[in-house]
């Protein structure tokens, strides 16, 4: 369902570029991966969307680092644009900031054929993407993800949205970008903790249905963290894996739910610490959640216990937490976690839906998990 | 592209029901038209969406008249629901009220498979529909339109949205309902002015591409205004006409723009009076706008002047204004109107797009209209 191609020699010199095509018929689009892409953004956008004007949406932190470079690249390609700079952080994914971004786009008199360009991590991508989905009932959208998490996960697949006081990502739209530019050189400024958080989502693709990719990550963990070719290739495989799932089930009526491996437990953990990033960021919650999903699957007799141990060992080697007890200041209770699980939006008609697994690379959607079994399992895990 | 069928004998007795199918593949849906449908709402919804829960969204005026009846009908069919009652009026189509409705839907813990039911006119339908499009990235949506304008226009076709301080309907989504229940008996409580405003949109379908329908309206104006079979049939033809346009171009990339016949001038007039409904409601703006579109087309040599006169005579007979000078307290200027036209969202890449016509039932999209010609035409019209 996916094609890939070496991207050929480019003005950036000999730096290798990789390409993944997200295959959605008339709405198909390219993900370009490689160092220096931010400086080629204008040319790549103009080649696909000639004549457009644009609004760059970014946050103060990322803006300080990269906004000028992106702006120069757009100007060089003749793309007239405005800049919308927001406060950094998860709180920006609010109705209030959405209204602000929408107003700024309209103030610039952009039209349906023009583009919103998200320069930042998941928060900016989700918010800017949602704004582009609803201004004039849908504008063009381009992603320039600046974190590993955004490059391998949130910038691919068209989920956009904001948070509600009642939960994360409860308001949004499916709106596919026209282009994703993943500049891998930008990852060099990430903290190790932030890189590891994105790495958890890469591991997830191996665990869902690509056991050979998991083997590769196990074999070359140092190479992927070190940058260079191994990192670029791991990002490419991750995007390809996500693109394949999205192409098969764009609006999550079925198999796309596999991408939630580790996320039901992970979201419950994030909620239980009040989304306090000092204690737990999303990728860390997913890391613990994936280990729990494997252990729970092992308890239920689906998954070999050795596979669960292997997953935990690899994530720990990557510097990620793998037990609930590893969360700082975490005397969490079963009740808190069960409440988080029940509120998770993957609940359908009151039954618990979990992504379980038969082993590494063999995840499946289970629609009818017994809440009592989850509760008993969590009670034991809290004592680990 | 459309099918229709007599709806057969129903528990409501012998009142005739009509059905129009909006043909959008997997997202096709029924529009049911007839007296007493509000009392059958529960049964009709359950037959299509078994097991759902719902949120009824309405305004204080409509709620006082019909909320209890709809609620009783849902309860009788076993549909658990909450009620969300908003202030009446165009100001309700705001980000603030959208956030309020979204929060109330989430507070009721409705899921993606559950439904938002809009009970009201265009404001409620647009706002509730938009909320249903973005809560959990898309819930089910049912329309129970209570005005003629909503029954023949805004409830059909999936355009949802809110206003921005920078203009009307600038923020929204395409989100098709699962069912539209047009209870024609509810129209009996409309004021003559409100009925006439909806009637302008009915005439529009004749003018776009159904000259025989225009003939029918001319021949039986009294019957349509009087209620009964002629009114039901005219509503059915109108819904069928709109459904055909929508099925051919759901997201307005081309021919759907024909539905804007009379609307570019009409929106400019509404904007020029500051959306003061005491001076001009939407349907009245459209009535004047359609006359202007025919006269302008005649000036440009496209349309026989007799056709323009015939359109004006029929709309005047229906009690609608047909000259700019008919707007109360209206010393409007060409500059104001041109500003409104330039801001209209049908502007693409700076050129003026108008719906022009070669005569009754022969409208077409003109993408490259000269602003100077429009300006000169409006100057003459202001002197009429």
TrEMBL record, chains A, B:
Keywords: Amino-acid biosynthesis, Aromatic amino acid biosynthesis, Cobalt, Cytoplasm, Lyase, Metal-binding, NAD, Nucleotide-binding, Zinc. GO terms for biological process: amino acid biosynthetic process; aromatic amino acid family biosynthetic process; chorismate biosynthetic process. Its cofactor is NAD(+); Co(2+); Zn(2+). Pathway: Metabolic intermediate biosynthesis; chorismate biosynthesis; chorismate from D-erythrose 4-phosphate and phosphoenolpyruvate: step 2/7. It is an enzyme of class 4 (lyase). GO terms for molecular function: 3-dehydroquinate synthase activity; metal ion binding; nucleotide binding. It holds the Pfam family DHQS_C. Binds 1 divalent metal cation per subunit. Can use either Co(2+) or Zn(2+). Residues 198-347 form the 3-dehydroquinate synthase C-terminal domain. It catalyses: 7-phospho-2-dehydro-3-deoxy-D-arabino-heptonate = 3-dehydroquinate + phosphate. Gene3D superfamilies: 3.40.50.1970, Dehydroquinate synthase-like - alpha domain. The keyword Amino-acid biosynthesis applies. NCBIfam families: aroB. This is 3-dehydroquinate synthase. PANTHER family: 3-DEHYDROQUINATE SYNTHASE, 3-DEHYDROQUINATE SYNTHASE, CHLOROPLASTIC. It comes from the Bacteria. Zn(2+) binds at residues 201, 263, 282. Catalyzes the conversion of 3-deoxy-D-arabino-heptulosonate 7-phosphate (DAHP) to dehydroquinate (DHQ). NAD(+) binds at residues 122-126, 146-147, 159, 168. The gene is aroB. Belongs to the sugar phosphate cyclases superfamily. Dehydroquinate synthase family. It is found in: Cytoplasm.
């Amino acid at each position: 369902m996916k094609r890939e191609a070496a991207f050929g020699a480019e003005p950036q010199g000999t730096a290798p570029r990789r390409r993944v095509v997200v295959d959605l018929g008339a709405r198909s689009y390219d993900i370009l991966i490689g160092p220096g892409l931010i400086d080629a953004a204008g040319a790549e956008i103009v080649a696909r969307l000639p004549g457009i004007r644009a609004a760059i949406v970014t946050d103060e932190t990322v803006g300080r680092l990269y906004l000028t470079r992106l702006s120069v690249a757009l100007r060089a390609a003749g793309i007239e644009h405005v800049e919308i700079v927001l406060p950094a952080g998860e709180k920006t994914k609010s109705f209030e900031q959405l209204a602000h971004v929408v107003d700024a786009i309209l103030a610039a008199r952009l039209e349906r054929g023009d583009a919103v360009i998200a320069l930042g991590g998941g928060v900016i991508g989700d918010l800017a993407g949602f704004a582009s989905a609803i201004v004039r009932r849908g504008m063009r959208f381009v992603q320039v993800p600046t974190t590993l998490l955004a490059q391998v996960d949130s910038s691919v697949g068209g989920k956009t949205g904001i948070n509600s006081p009642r939960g994360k990502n409860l308001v949004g739209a499916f709106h596919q970008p026209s282009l994703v530019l993943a500049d891998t050189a930008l990852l060099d400024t990430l903290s190790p903790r932030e890189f590891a958080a994105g790495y958890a989502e890469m591991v997830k693709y191996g665990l869902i249905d690509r056991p050979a990719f998991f083997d590769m990550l196990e074999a070359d963990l140092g190479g992927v963290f070190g940058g260079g070719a191994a990192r670029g290739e791991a990002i490419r495989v991750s995007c390809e894996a996500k693109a394949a799932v999205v192409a098969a089930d764009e609006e999550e009526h079925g198999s796309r739910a596999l991408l939630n491996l580790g996320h039901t437990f992970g979201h419950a953990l994030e909620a239980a610490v009040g989304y306090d990033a000092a204690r737990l960021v999303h990728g860390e919650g997913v890391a613990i959640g994936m280990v729990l999903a494997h252990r729970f699957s092992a308890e239920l007799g689906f998954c070999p216990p050795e596979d669960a141990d292997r997953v935990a060992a690899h994530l720990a080697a990557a510097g990620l937490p793998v037990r609930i007890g590893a969360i700082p200041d975490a005397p969490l209770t079963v009740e808190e976690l069960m409440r988080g699980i029940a509120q998770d939006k993957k609940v359908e008609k009151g039954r618990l839906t979990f992504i379980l697994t038969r082993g590494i690379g063999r995840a499946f959607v289970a629609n009818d998990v017994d809440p009592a079994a989850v509760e008993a399992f969590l009670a034991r895990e809290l004592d680990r």
